[in-house]
Design goal:
By secondary structure, the chain is mostly helical. The chain has 7 helices and 2 strands; from the N terminus they run ααααββααα. It has a two-stranded antiparallel ribbon. Strand 1 and strand 2 form a beta hairpin. Helix 5 crosses helix 6. The chain starts with 7 loop residues before the first helix and ends in a 5-residue tail after the last helix.
Length: about 190
């Protein structure tokens, strides 16, 4: 591993920390605000992130800890899933469990890094945008997410992933450009 590479467990830890700050910043009365994801509220976006993480580990025969409902306590629901996923990733015996994925044979840690971590960046922005909190994406996270999106090729445009790329002025800032690539208006 070079000094610029981090393990999937560390990437998840870093991005989950930022995502947690976003979740914790949401005012209680804003969870049902419309998000940039058509037809979804901020709570729906968080539910999607939680459910996706819960479903992901099932492909290798694992389950994440049960916790409160996102309807009752969004922050605690997220914290329960986050902590359980981190334990899975920190344990080489579970992080390296393999399965046959949509793109071929892979392991849990690689999938978490390439898909679930991507969701933490993008859906963290969706939650912040919906709830009127800080929408700034750290530059390193922004560049990493753009690289993941580009590596997915046309798959990024599949239904339920990202919408079509939106036009932006040539002088738009980097975050606006990346969000537009992901079908979002900054």
């Amino acid at each position: 591993m070079t000094s610029t590479e981090i393990s999937p467990a560390d990437r998840y830890r870093d991005l989950a920390t930022t995502f947690t700050r976003r979740v914790d910043a949401v005012p209680a009365n804003r969870w049902d605000s419309d998000s940039p994801c058509d037809g979804w509220t901020a709570r729906d976006v968080l539910r999607h992130v939680i459910d996706t993480e819960r479903d992901m580990v099932k492909v290798v025969g694992l389950e994440l800890d049960a916790g409160p409902s996102v309807d009752d306590d969004p922050a605690a629901a997220w914290a329960t899933v986050r902590d359980a996923m981190q334990r899975v990733l920190d344990d080489p015996a579970t992080a390296t469990l393999e399965y046959e994925g949509a793109f071929g044979r892979t392991d849990l840690a690689a999938t978490v890094e390439n898909f679930l971590c991507f969701d933490l960046v993008v859906h963290g922005w969706d939650v912040a945008k919906a709830t009127g909190t800080d929408v700034t994406i750290p530059e390193a996270d922004l560049e990493w997410a753009r690289g993941v999106a580009e590596s997915l090729g046309d798959s990024i445009r599949m239904p339920g992933v990202c919408g079509p790329q939106l036009p932006v002025p040539d002088d738009a800032d980097r975050q606006t450009q990346v969000l537009a690539y992901l079908g979002r208006r900054g």
